[in-house]
Amino acid sequence: MRMVFYKSKMGLLLLLLLIGQSACSSPSTEVAAQEVQEPTETFTQRRVVVGADSLVRGRLLDRNDSVLVATGTLHLLKLPRKAPLDTSALGQLLGWGPATVRQRIANALPYDNAPAGYPVNLRLTAAEAARVRKARKQWPTLVLSTQVGRRYTANAGAAVLGYPAAEAQAFFRQAQRTKRGRFYKLRNGGVEGYYNGLLMGRVGYLHPLIDSVGNNRGSWATDTTFRQGQDLHLTIDTKLQAYAEQLMGNRKGYLVALDPKTGEILAYVSGPVYDPATLTAPDQAKVRSEMLYDENKPLLNRPAMLANPPGSVFKLVNAAVALQLGAIEPSTGFKCDQTLIKCVHHHPVPSSLTVGLKYSCNPYFYQTMRNLIQRVPDSLVADTVAARHANLAEWRRYVRSFGLDSVLGVDIPREAPGFLPTPAYYDKARKTRNWTYRSIYSLSVGQGEINMTGLQMANVTAIIANRGWYYPPHLVRGIGDNGPLPRFTQKRYTLIDSANFAALLPGMLGVMQRGGTAETSSLADVGITVAGKTGTVENGGDDDDDHAAFVGFAPADNPKIVVAVYLENAGFGATAAAPCAVMVMEKHLRGSIAPKRKRWEARVKHRARNGY
Questions:
Q1: Taking every annotated instance into account, which residue ranges of this chain make up the domain Penicillin-binding protein dimerisation (predicted)?
Q2: Phi, psi dihedral angles at 94 (to 5 degrees)
Q3: Do 234 and 594 contact (CB within 8 A), yes or no?
Q4: Alpha-carbon gap, residue 318 to 304, rounded angstroms
Protein backbone atom coordinates (compact mmCIF):
# COMPACT_ATOMS: atom_id res chain seq x y z
CA MET A 1 0.00 0.00 0.00
CA ARG A 2 2.86 2.43 0.80
CA MET A 3 4.48 1.83 -2.62
CA VAL A 4 1.27 2.51 -4.46
CA PHE A 5 0.83 5.84 -2.54
CA TYR A 6 4.36 6.98 -3.37
CA LYS A 7 3.91 6.25 -7.09
CA SER A 8 0.59 8.03 -7.13
CA LYS A 9 2.19 11.08 -5.46
CA MET A 10 5.08 11.18 -7.91
CA GLY A 11 2.69 10.93 -10.81
CA LEU A 12 0.67 13.82 -9.54
CA LEU A 13 3.75 16.00 -9.28
CA LEU A 14 4.86 15.13 -12.82
CA LEU A 15 1.43 15.98 -14.13
CA LEU A 16 1.41 19.42 -12.48
CA LEU A 17 4.87 20.18 -13.81
CA LEU A 18 3.82 19.40 -17.40
CA ILE A 19 0.75 21.61 -17.10
CA GLY A 20 2.87 24.53 -15.82
CA GLN A 21 5.35 24.26 -18.68
CA SER A 22 2.63 24.23 -21.28
CA ALA A 23 1.04 27.31 -19.73
CA CYS A 24 4.30 29.28 -19.77
CA SER A 25 5.00 28.36 -23.41
CA SER A 26 1.51 29.36 -24.61
CA PRO A 27 1.61 32.56 -26.77
CA SER A 28 -1.95 33.57 -25.84
CA THR A 29 -1.18 33.44 -22.10
CA GLU A 30 1.94 35.64 -22.55
CA VAL A 31 -0.07 38.32 -24.38
CA ALA A 32 -2.69 38.30 -21.65
CA ALA A 33 -0.06 38.88 -18.97
CA GLN A 34 1.32 41.87 -20.86
CA GLU A 35 -2.14 43.40 -21.16
CA VAL A 36 -2.74 43.23 -17.37
CA GLN A 37 0.57 44.93 -16.34
CA GLU A 38 0.21 48.72 -15.53
CA PRO A 39 2.83 51.08 -17.06
CA THR A 40 4.96 53.08 -14.52
CA GLU A 41 4.15 56.88 -14.64
CA THR A 42 6.84 59.50 -13.91
CA PHE A 43 6.22 62.79 -11.99
CA THR A 44 8.32 65.96 -11.75
CA GLN A 45 8.59 68.04 -8.56
CA ARG A 46 8.83 71.73 -9.30
CA ARG A 47 9.34 74.84 -7.12
CA VAL A 48 7.89 78.11 -8.43
CA VAL A 49 8.95 81.42 -6.86
CA VAL A 50 6.19 84.04 -6.60
CA GLY A 51 6.82 87.78 -6.27
CA ALA A 52 10.63 87.88 -6.32
CA ASP A 53 10.67 90.83 -8.74
CA SER A 54 8.13 92.88 -6.77
CA LEU A 55 9.45 92.33 -3.23
CA VAL A 56 10.44 95.68 -1.65
CA ARG A 57 11.67 96.30 1.90
CA GLY A 58 9.11 98.22 3.95
CA ARG A 59 9.48 101.89 4.83
CA LEU A 60 9.86 103.56 8.23
CA LEU A 61 7.43 106.42 8.88
CA ASP A 62 7.09 108.66 11.92
CA ARG A 63 3.90 109.12 13.94
CA ASN A 64 2.72 111.78 11.46
CA ASP A 65 3.37 109.44 8.47
CA SER A 66 6.43 111.32 7.25
CA VAL A 67 8.77 108.87 5.51
CA LEU A 68 12.06 108.53 7.40
CA VAL A 69 13.64 105.56 5.64
CA ALA A 70 12.78 103.90 2.33
CA THR A 71 14.46 101.66 -0.22
CA GLY A 72 15.57 103.54 -3.30
CA THR A 73 18.29 104.16 -5.84
CA LEU A 74 21.67 105.31 -4.56
CA HIS A 75 23.93 107.17 -7.00
CA LEU A 76 27.64 106.49 -6.50
CA LEU A 77 30.53 108.34 -8.12
CA LYS A 78 33.76 106.38 -8.34
CA LEU A 79 36.80 108.64 -8.53
CA PRO A 80 39.79 107.78 -10.73
CA ARG A 81 42.54 105.86 -8.94
CA LYS A 82 45.64 106.93 -10.89
CA ALA A 83 45.08 110.17 -12.73
CA PRO A 84 45.44 113.37 -10.68
CA LEU A 85 42.07 114.80 -9.65
CA ASP A 86 41.21 118.49 -9.97
CA THR A 87 39.09 118.84 -6.82
CA SER A 88 38.26 122.46 -7.61
CA ALA A 89 36.81 121.55 -11.01
CA LEU A 90 35.01 118.55 -9.52
CA GLY A 91 33.44 120.84 -6.93
CA GLN A 92 32.19 123.15 -9.68
CA LEU A 93 30.71 120.17 -11.52
CA LEU A 94 28.85 118.90 -8.45
CA GLY A 95 27.99 122.29 -6.97
CA TRP A 96 30.23 121.74 -3.93
CA GLY A 97 32.79 124.08 -2.48
CA PRO A 98 36.49 123.07 -2.51
CA ALA A 99 36.45 122.38 1.24
CA THR A 100 33.37 120.18 0.86
CA VAL A 101 35.04 118.10 -1.86
CA ARG A 102 38.14 117.54 0.23
CA GLN A 103 36.09 116.68 3.32
CA ARG A 104 33.84 114.25 1.46
CA ILE A 105 36.85 112.45 0.00
CA ALA A 106 38.58 112.34 3.40
CA ASN A 107 35.46 110.87 5.04
CA ALA A 108 35.31 108.14 2.42
CA LEU A 109 38.83 106.91 3.23
CA PRO A 110 39.04 104.34 6.05
CA TYR A 111 42.03 106.03 7.71
CA ASP A 112 44.23 109.11 7.49
CA ASN A 113 47.12 109.14 5.03
CA ALA A 114 45.57 106.48 2.84
CA PRO A 115 47.75 105.85 -0.24
CA ALA A 116 47.11 107.80 -3.40
CA GLY A 117 44.65 106.04 -5.66
CA TYR A 118 42.72 104.37 -2.83
CA PRO A 119 39.25 103.57 -4.26
CA VAL A 120 36.68 106.19 -3.30
CA ASN A 121 32.93 106.18 -3.92
CA LEU A 122 30.91 109.30 -3.18
CA ARG A 123 27.15 109.42 -2.76
CA LEU A 124 25.37 111.85 -5.05
CA THR A 125 21.88 113.21 -5.23
CA ALA A 126 19.83 112.58 -8.36
CA ALA A 127 20.50 116.14 -9.53
CA GLU A 128 24.26 115.78 -8.97
CA ALA A 129 24.26 112.47 -10.84
CA ALA A 130 22.49 114.14 -13.76
CA ARG A 131 25.25 116.77 -13.96
CA VAL A 132 27.90 114.06 -14.13
CA ARG A 133 26.05 112.30 -16.96
CA LYS A 134 25.87 115.51 -18.98
CA ALA A 135 29.59 116.12 -18.52
CA ARG A 136 30.64 112.56 -19.33
CA LYS A 137 32.81 113.62 -22.28
CA GLN A 138 34.70 116.19 -20.21
CA TRP A 139 35.14 113.72 -17.32
CA PRO A 140 35.81 110.31 -18.91
CA THR A 141 37.63 109.01 -15.82
CA LEU A 142 34.61 109.38 -13.54
CA VAL A 143 32.44 106.27 -13.21
CA LEU A 144 28.79 106.73 -12.23
CA SER A 145 26.85 103.73 -10.95
CA THR A 146 23.63 103.01 -9.10
CA GLN A 147 22.61 100.49 -6.49
CA VAL A 148 19.53 99.79 -4.41
CA GLY A 149 19.76 100.64 -0.72
CA ARG A 150 18.19 102.41 2.24
CA ARG A 151 17.71 106.15 1.86
CA TYR A 152 17.33 108.37 4.93
CA THR A 153 15.25 111.53 4.62
CA ALA A 154 16.22 112.90 8.06
CA ASN A 155 19.52 113.07 9.92
CA ALA A 156 17.97 112.27 13.32
CA GLY A 157 16.99 109.10 15.16
CA ALA A 158 20.03 106.89 14.51
CA ALA A 159 19.57 104.89 17.73
CA VAL A 160 15.92 104.27 16.83
CA LEU A 161 16.11 103.56 13.11
CA GLY A 162 19.17 101.31 13.13
CA TYR A 163 20.26 99.57 9.92
CA PRO A 164 19.79 96.37 7.89
CA ALA A 165 22.66 94.02 8.67
CA ALA A 166 23.08 93.21 4.97
CA GLU A 167 24.01 96.85 4.25
CA ALA A 168 26.28 97.24 7.28
CA GLN A 169 28.84 94.56 6.41
CA ALA A 170 31.63 97.09 5.78
CA PHE A 171 30.96 98.57 9.20
CA PHE A 172 30.99 95.16 10.88
CA ARG A 173 34.36 94.42 9.30
CA GLN A 174 35.72 97.73 10.59
CA ALA A 175 34.42 96.94 14.07
CA GLN A 176 35.96 93.48 13.94
CA ARG A 177 39.34 94.89 12.95
CA THR A 178 39.26 97.44 15.76
CA LYS A 179 37.97 94.82 18.23
CA ARG A 180 35.12 97.13 19.26
CA GLY A 181 32.18 95.12 17.95
CA ARG A 182 31.66 92.98 21.04
CA PHE A 183 31.76 95.98 23.37
CA TYR A 184 29.16 97.97 21.47
CA LYS A 185 27.00 94.94 20.55
CA LEU A 186 26.73 96.54 17.13
CA ARG A 187 24.32 94.07 15.63
CA ASN A 188 21.37 95.54 17.53
CA GLY A 189 20.21 97.41 14.42
CA GLY A 190 17.37 99.45 16.00
CA VAL A 191 13.86 98.81 14.67
CA GLU A 192 15.39 97.79 11.32
CA GLY A 193 16.99 94.86 13.09
CA TYR A 194 14.13 94.05 15.46
CA TYR A 195 11.46 93.98 12.75
CA ASN A 196 13.73 92.75 9.96
CA GLY A 197 11.51 89.81 8.98
CA LEU A 198 8.41 91.99 8.63
CA LEU A 199 10.26 94.76 6.80
CA MET A 200 11.91 92.34 4.39
CA GLY A 201 8.75 90.41 3.54
CA ARG A 202 9.03 87.05 1.81
CA VAL A 203 8.59 85.53 -1.61
CA GLY A 204 5.97 82.86 -2.12
CA TYR A 205 6.71 79.27 -3.13
CA LEU A 206 4.44 76.90 -5.09
CA HIS A 207 5.24 73.18 -5.19
CA PRO A 208 3.34 71.63 -8.14
CA LEU A 209 3.62 67.92 -8.95
CA ILE A 210 3.68 67.57 -12.78
CA ASP A 211 3.06 64.33 -14.64
CA SER A 212 4.78 63.17 -17.84
CA VAL A 213 2.31 64.94 -20.12
CA GLY A 214 2.48 68.28 -18.25
CA ASN A 215 -0.67 68.04 -16.15
CA ASN A 216 -0.72 69.36 -12.54
CA ARG A 217 -1.34 66.42 -10.23
CA GLY A 218 -1.40 68.32 -6.93
CA SER A 219 1.41 69.56 -4.66
CA TRP A 220 4.41 67.70 -3.34
CA ALA A 221 4.92 70.17 -0.44
CA THR A 222 2.98 72.91 1.36
CA ASP A 223 2.77 76.17 -0.60
CA THR A 224 3.77 79.48 1.05
CA THR A 225 2.14 82.79 0.17
CA PHE A 226 3.93 85.91 -1.02
CA ARG A 227 4.09 88.73 1.56
CA GLN A 228 5.25 92.20 0.67
CA GLY A 229 7.59 94.03 3.06
CA GLN A 230 5.52 95.82 5.70
CA ASP A 231 5.79 99.53 6.47
CA LEU A 232 6.47 100.41 10.10
CA HIS A 233 4.65 103.41 11.54
CA LEU A 234 6.86 104.63 14.37
CA THR A 235 5.81 106.38 17.55
CA ILE A 236 8.58 108.96 17.08
CA ASP A 237 7.75 112.58 16.31
CA THR A 238 10.52 113.54 13.87
CA LYS A 239 10.46 117.25 14.72
CA LEU A 240 10.57 116.58 18.45
CA GLN A 241 13.31 113.98 17.93
CA ALA A 242 15.45 116.42 15.94
CA TYR A 243 14.92 119.15 18.54
CA ALA A 244 15.85 116.84 21.42
CA GLU A 245 19.01 115.80 19.56
CA GLN A 246 19.99 119.46 19.23
CA LEU A 247 19.77 119.76 23.02
CA MET A 248 21.87 116.62 23.50
CA GLY A 249 24.44 117.16 20.72
CA ASN A 250 27.91 115.84 21.53
CA ARG A 251 27.21 115.31 25.22
CA LYS A 252 27.08 111.86 26.77
CA GLY A 253 23.69 110.84 28.04
CA TYR A 254 20.12 110.13 27.00
CA LEU A 255 16.69 111.68 26.72
CA VAL A 256 13.51 109.61 26.52
CA ALA A 257 10.08 111.18 26.05
CA LEU A 258 6.90 109.12 25.90
CA ASP A 259 3.14 109.37 26.05
CA PRO A 260 2.19 107.91 29.46
CA LYS A 261 -1.32 106.96 28.31
CA THR A 262 -0.07 104.66 25.54
CA GLY A 263 3.60 103.89 26.19
CA GLU A 264 4.47 105.32 22.77
CA ILE A 265 7.99 106.80 22.71
CA LEU A 266 7.91 110.33 21.28
CA ALA A 267 11.66 110.96 21.32
CA TYR A 268 14.55 108.60 21.95
CA VAL A 269 17.99 110.22 22.07
CA SER A 270 21.34 108.60 22.79
CA GLY A 271 24.24 111.03 23.00
CA PRO A 272 26.55 111.85 21.39
CA VAL A 273 24.20 111.87 18.39
CA TYR A 274 25.14 111.02 14.80
CA ASP A 275 23.60 110.78 11.35
CA PRO A 276 21.70 107.48 10.91
CA ALA A 277 23.11 106.97 7.39
CA THR A 278 26.68 106.88 8.73
CA LEU A 279 26.80 103.16 9.49
CA THR A 280 25.81 101.98 6.02
CA ALA A 281 26.94 104.79 3.70
CA PRO A 282 29.80 103.76 1.35
CA ASP A 283 31.53 107.12 1.75
CA GLN A 284 31.64 107.30 5.57
CA ALA A 285 34.43 104.84 6.36
CA LYS A 286 36.57 107.38 8.21
CA VAL A 287 33.63 108.70 10.23
CA ARG A 288 32.76 105.16 11.31
CA SER A 289 36.35 104.47 12.32
CA GLU A 290 36.44 107.63 14.44
CA MET A 291 33.18 106.68 16.11
CA LEU A 292 34.50 103.24 17.00
CA TYR A 293 37.49 104.79 18.79
CA ASP A 294 35.64 107.77 20.30
CA GLU A 295 36.03 107.73 24.10
CA ASN A 296 32.49 109.14 24.44
CA LYS A 297 31.11 105.93 22.88
CA PRO A 298 28.48 107.38 20.52
CA LEU A 299 27.57 103.91 19.25
CA LEU A 300 26.42 102.78 22.70
CA ASN A 301 22.62 102.74 22.73
CA ARG A 302 22.41 104.42 26.12
CA PRO A 303 18.64 104.54 26.87
CA ALA A 304 18.29 100.76 26.47
CA MET A 305 21.72 99.33 27.25
CA LEU A 306 23.35 101.59 29.85
CA ALA A 307 22.12 101.06 33.43
CA ASN A 308 23.27 103.64 36.00
CA PRO A 309 22.35 104.61 39.56
CA PRO A 310 19.30 106.89 39.19
CA GLY A 311 20.16 109.23 42.05
CA SER A 312 17.50 111.30 43.80
CA VAL A 313 14.82 110.63 41.20
CA PHE A 314 14.54 107.19 42.84
CA LYS A 315 13.24 108.87 45.99
CA LEU A 316 9.85 108.86 44.28
CA VAL A 317 9.86 105.06 44.13
CA ASN A 318 11.06 104.66 47.72
CA ALA A 319 8.41 107.07 48.95
CA ALA A 320 5.63 105.19 47.15
CA VAL A 321 6.77 101.83 48.58
CA ALA A 322 7.18 103.29 52.08
CA LEU A 323 3.64 104.68 51.92
CA GLN A 324 2.28 101.34 50.71
CA LEU A 325 3.99 99.36 53.48
CA GLY A 326 3.11 101.84 56.22
CA ALA A 327 6.65 102.99 56.94
CA ILE A 328 5.54 106.63 56.55
CA GLU A 329 2.43 108.68 55.91
CA PRO A 330 2.13 111.80 53.73
CA SER A 331 2.24 113.92 56.89
CA THR A 332 5.35 112.21 58.32
CA GLY A 333 8.22 114.60 59.05
CA PHE A 334 11.88 114.07 59.94
CA LYS A 335 14.74 116.29 60.99
CA CYS A 336 17.33 117.16 58.36
CA ASP A 337 19.98 115.32 60.36
CA GLN A 338 23.31 115.89 58.60
CA THR A 339 25.03 113.28 60.77
CA LEU A 340 23.09 110.56 58.93
CA ILE A 341 23.82 111.69 55.38
CA LYS A 342 24.83 115.00 53.84
CA CYS A 343 22.19 117.26 52.32
CA VAL A 344 23.50 119.77 49.79
CA HIS A 345 20.43 122.02 49.94
CA HIS A 346 19.70 124.59 52.65
CA HIS A 347 15.98 124.35 53.20
CA PRO A 348 13.23 124.37 55.83
CA VAL A 349 12.71 121.36 58.07
CA PRO A 350 11.02 118.59 56.01
CA SER A 351 7.83 118.38 58.04
CA SER A 352 6.05 116.19 55.47
CA LEU A 353 6.66 114.06 52.40
CA THR A 354 5.77 117.03 50.19
CA VAL A 355 8.49 119.20 51.74
CA GLY A 356 10.99 116.34 51.63
CA LEU A 357 10.44 115.89 47.88
CA LYS A 358 10.37 119.62 47.12
CA TYR A 359 13.82 120.14 48.60
CA SER A 360 15.10 116.60 47.88
CA CYS A 361 16.22 116.22 51.49
CA ASN A 362 18.64 113.29 51.76
CA PRO A 363 18.23 112.80 55.55
CA TYR A 364 14.44 112.66 55.10
CA PHE A 365 14.66 109.73 52.71
CA TYR A 366 17.43 108.08 54.72
CA GLN A 367 15.02 107.93 57.65
CA THR A 368 12.10 106.94 55.42
CA MET A 369 13.87 103.82 54.23
CA ARG A 370 15.31 103.14 57.67
CA ASN A 371 11.74 102.89 58.94
CA LEU A 372 11.02 100.45 56.16
CA ILE A 373 14.08 98.19 56.56
CA GLN A 374 14.24 98.19 60.38
CA ARG A 375 10.59 97.38 60.97
CA VAL A 376 10.34 94.33 63.22
CA PRO A 377 7.15 92.32 62.77
CA ASP A 378 5.79 90.59 65.85
CA SER A 379 6.69 87.20 64.36
CA LEU A 380 10.37 88.20 64.11
CA VAL A 381 10.73 90.32 67.23
CA ALA A 382 13.54 88.09 68.53
CA ASP A 383 15.47 88.00 65.24
CA THR A 384 16.25 91.46 63.84
CA VAL A 385 18.61 89.99 61.21
CA ALA A 386 15.79 87.93 59.71
CA ALA A 387 13.53 90.97 59.91
CA ARG A 388 15.94 93.09 57.86
CA HIS A 389 16.25 90.35 55.28
CA ALA A 390 12.48 89.99 55.04
CA ASN A 391 11.93 93.76 54.82
CA LEU A 392 14.53 94.22 52.07
CA ALA A 393 13.00 91.32 50.12
CA GLU A 394 9.56 92.92 50.50
CA TRP A 395 10.90 96.30 49.39
CA ARG A 396 12.45 94.68 46.34
CA ARG A 397 9.22 92.87 45.43
CA TYR A 398 7.29 96.14 45.35
CA VAL A 399 10.02 98.00 43.46
CA ARG A 400 10.22 95.25 40.83
CA SER A 401 6.54 95.80 40.04
CA PHE A 402 7.66 99.12 38.45
CA GLY A 403 9.37 97.08 35.72
CA LEU A 404 12.82 97.31 37.31
CA ASP A 405 15.46 94.57 37.54
CA SER A 406 13.99 93.11 34.34
CA VAL A 407 13.67 94.07 30.69
CA LEU A 408 10.60 96.05 29.74
CA GLY A 409 10.45 94.33 26.35
CA VAL A 410 10.84 97.47 24.23
CA ASP A 411 11.12 96.74 20.49
CA ILE A 412 14.90 97.16 20.25
CA PRO A 413 17.09 94.05 19.89
CA ARG A 414 19.05 94.52 23.12
CA GLU A 415 17.94 95.92 26.45
CA ALA A 416 19.67 95.83 29.85
CA PRO A 417 17.59 94.73 32.87
CA GLY A 418 19.22 97.01 35.44
CA PHE A 419 19.74 95.70 38.98
CA LEU A 420 18.10 95.65 42.40
CA PRO A 421 20.10 94.03 45.23
CA THR A 422 18.68 91.08 47.14
CA PRO A 423 19.33 90.04 50.76
CA ALA A 424 21.50 87.19 49.45
CA TYR A 425 23.51 89.70 47.40
CA TYR A 426 24.35 91.68 50.54
CA ASP A 427 25.11 88.50 52.50
CA LYS A 428 27.76 87.68 49.93
CA ALA A 429 29.02 91.24 49.39
CA ARG A 430 29.28 92.00 53.12
CA LYS A 431 30.48 88.46 53.92
CA THR A 432 27.99 88.22 56.74
CA ARG A 433 24.26 87.93 57.33
CA ASN A 434 24.52 90.48 60.12
CA TRP A 435 24.69 93.53 57.88
CA THR A 436 22.79 96.55 59.12
CA TYR A 437 20.77 99.30 57.48
CA ARG A 438 23.76 101.59 57.79
CA SER A 439 25.65 99.44 55.28
CA ILE A 440 22.91 99.69 52.62
CA TYR A 441 21.48 103.18 53.23
CA SER A 442 22.68 104.45 49.82
CA LEU A 443 19.59 102.76 48.35
CA SER A 444 17.49 105.44 50.03
CA VAL A 445 18.87 108.12 47.67
CA GLY A 446 19.15 105.99 44.52
CA GLN A 447 22.87 105.28 44.79
CA GLY A 448 24.98 102.24 45.56
CA GLU A 449 24.16 98.95 43.93
CA ILE A 450 20.87 99.95 42.27
CA ASN A 451 20.94 100.50 38.48
CA MET A 452 18.26 101.64 36.02
CA THR A 453 18.17 102.30 32.29
CA GLY A 454 16.78 105.42 30.65
CA LEU A 455 13.75 103.49 29.42
CA GLN A 456 13.07 102.33 32.96
CA MET A 457 13.39 105.86 34.35
CA ALA A 458 10.89 107.17 31.81
CA ASN A 459 8.55 104.26 32.47
CA VAL A 460 8.66 104.77 36.25
CA THR A 461 7.67 108.40 35.69
CA ALA A 462 4.81 107.29 33.43
CA ILE A 463 3.61 104.97 36.21
CA ILE A 464 3.50 107.91 38.65
CA ALA A 465 1.69 110.05 36.06
CA ASN A 466 -0.88 107.24 35.59
CA ARG A 467 -1.20 106.56 39.34
CA GLY A 468 0.06 103.01 39.15
CA TRP A 469 -0.21 101.48 35.67
CA TYR A 470 1.63 101.55 32.36
CA TYR A 471 1.81 100.18 28.86
CA PRO A 472 5.26 98.82 27.91
CA PRO A 473 7.28 101.51 26.10
CA HIS A 474 7.53 100.88 22.35
CA LEU A 475 8.76 102.50 19.14
CA VAL A 476 6.34 101.04 16.56
CA ARG A 477 2.65 101.94 16.76
CA GLY A 478 1.59 100.19 13.54
CA ILE A 479 2.79 97.35 11.32
CA GLY A 480 1.37 97.71 7.84
CA ASP A 481 -2.36 98.32 8.26
CA ASN A 482 -2.38 96.77 11.73
CA GLY A 483 -1.56 98.09 15.19
CA PRO A 484 1.51 97.41 17.33
CA LEU A 485 2.60 94.03 18.63
CA PRO A 486 -0.08 92.66 21.00
CA ARG A 487 2.04 92.89 24.14
CA PHE A 488 2.22 96.67 23.81
CA THR A 489 -1.55 96.96 24.25
CA GLN A 490 -1.66 95.07 27.55
CA LYS A 491 -1.96 97.35 30.59
CA ARG A 492 0.27 96.43 33.53
CA TYR A 493 -0.14 97.40 37.17
CA THR A 494 2.23 97.92 40.07
CA LEU A 495 1.64 96.74 43.64
CA ILE A 496 1.17 100.32 44.85
CA ASP A 497 -2.27 101.84 45.46
CA SER A 498 -3.21 104.87 43.36
CA ALA A 499 -3.69 107.00 46.49
CA ASN A 500 -0.03 106.57 47.37
CA PHE A 501 1.02 107.80 43.93
CA ALA A 502 -1.31 110.77 44.29
CA ALA A 503 0.51 111.62 47.54
CA LEU A 504 3.72 112.20 45.51
CA LEU A 505 2.21 114.85 43.26
CA PRO A 506 2.29 117.85 45.65
CA GLY A 507 5.99 117.31 46.24
CA MET A 508 6.72 116.99 42.51
CA LEU A 509 4.81 120.20 41.88
CA GLY A 510 6.80 121.85 44.66
CA VAL A 511 10.06 120.92 42.92
CA MET A 512 9.10 123.27 40.07
CA GLN A 513 7.81 126.07 42.29
CA ARG A 514 9.52 128.85 44.21
CA GLY A 515 12.20 127.37 46.45
CA GLY A 516 12.09 123.95 44.80
CA THR A 517 15.18 122.31 43.36
CA ALA A 518 14.09 123.07 39.75
CA GLU A 519 12.21 126.35 40.22
CA THR A 520 14.08 128.00 37.33
CA SER A 521 12.70 125.38 34.93
CA SER A 522 9.06 126.19 35.56
CA LEU A 523 6.75 126.59 32.56
CA ALA A 524 4.11 128.48 34.52
CA ASP A 525 4.63 131.54 32.31
CA VAL A 526 3.06 129.66 29.38
CA GLY A 527 0.36 128.01 31.45
CA ILE A 528 1.95 124.56 31.69
CA THR A 529 2.18 122.95 35.13
CA VAL A 530 5.11 120.52 35.35
CA ALA A 531 5.56 117.80 37.98
CA GLY A 532 9.20 116.83 38.28
CA LYS A 533 12.09 115.51 40.31
CA THR A 534 15.78 116.37 40.01
CA GLY A 535 18.71 114.08 40.64
CA THR A 536 22.44 114.52 41.03
CA VAL A 537 24.29 111.22 40.82
CA GLU A 538 27.73 110.75 42.37
CA ASN A 539 29.93 108.79 40.01
CA GLY A 540 32.78 107.96 42.37
CA GLY A 541 35.47 109.82 40.40
CA ASP A 542 37.42 112.67 41.95
CA ASP A 543 38.21 114.32 38.63
CA ASP A 544 34.81 114.03 36.93
CA ASP A 545 31.65 115.99 37.67
CA ASP A 546 28.54 114.24 38.91
CA HIS A 547 25.84 113.03 36.54
CA ALA A 548 22.71 115.16 36.15
CA ALA A 549 19.23 113.63 36.04
CA PHE A 550 15.64 114.81 35.82
CA VAL A 551 12.25 113.15 35.36
CA GLY A 552 8.86 114.81 35.00
CA PHE A 553 5.54 115.01 33.22
CA ALA A 554 3.18 117.70 31.94
CA PRO A 555 0.51 118.92 32.20
CA ALA A 556 0.49 117.72 35.79
CA ASP A 557 -3.30 117.28 35.98
CA ASN A 558 -3.60 115.53 32.59
CA PRO A 559 -0.17 114.16 31.59
CA LYS A 560 0.51 114.04 27.85
CA ILE A 561 4.29 113.73 27.90
CA VAL A 562 6.85 112.17 30.23
CA VAL A 563 10.54 113.06 29.91
CA ALA A 564 13.60 111.45 31.51
CA VAL A 565 17.02 113.09 31.01
CA TYR A 566 20.43 111.85 32.11
CA LEU A 567 23.62 113.80 31.29
CA GLU A 568 26.92 112.25 32.25
CA ASN A 569 29.42 114.49 34.09
CA ALA A 570 27.12 117.50 33.66
CA GLY A 571 26.82 118.49 37.33
CA PHE A 572 23.49 119.24 39.00
CA GLY A 573 20.24 117.86 37.68
CA ALA A 574 18.50 121.17 38.35
CA THR A 575 20.84 123.23 36.18
CA ALA A 576 21.79 120.74 33.44
CA ALA A 577 19.08 118.09 32.96
CA ALA A 578 15.88 119.92 33.97
CA PRO A 579 16.18 122.69 31.32
CA CYS A 580 16.47 120.10 28.52
CA ALA A 581 13.44 118.18 29.79
CA VAL A 582 11.08 121.14 30.13
CA MET A 583 12.03 122.56 26.73
CA VAL A 584 11.14 119.21 25.13
CA MET A 585 7.83 119.32 27.02
CA GLU A 586 7.15 122.86 25.83
CA LYS A 587 8.09 122.01 22.24
CA HIS A 588 5.71 119.05 22.24
CA LEU A 589 2.78 120.81 23.93
CA ARG A 590 3.08 124.27 22.34
CA GLY A 591 5.13 123.69 19.19
CA SER A 592 7.63 126.45 20.05
CA ILE A 593 9.77 127.87 22.85
CA ALA A 594 8.60 131.05 24.57
CA PRO A 595 10.77 134.19 24.05
CA LYS A 596 11.59 134.13 27.76
CA ARG A 597 13.63 130.94 27.25
CA LYS A 598 15.25 131.70 23.89
CA ARG A 599 18.59 132.75 25.43
CA TRP A 600 18.40 129.75 27.71
CA GLU A 601 17.74 127.50 24.70
CA ALA A 602 20.69 129.00 22.78
CA ARG A 603 23.00 128.39 25.73
CA VAL A 604 21.93 124.73 26.01
CA LYS A 605 22.46 124.17 22.28
CA HIS A 606 25.90 125.79 22.45
CA ARG A 607 26.92 123.44 25.25
CA ALA A 608 25.52 120.51 23.30
CA ARG A 609 27.58 121.33 20.21
CA ASN A 610 30.72 121.60 22.30
CA GLY A 611 30.04 118.48 24.35
CA TYR A 612 29.81 119.83 27.90
A1: 57-215
A2: -90, -10
A3: no
A4: 23
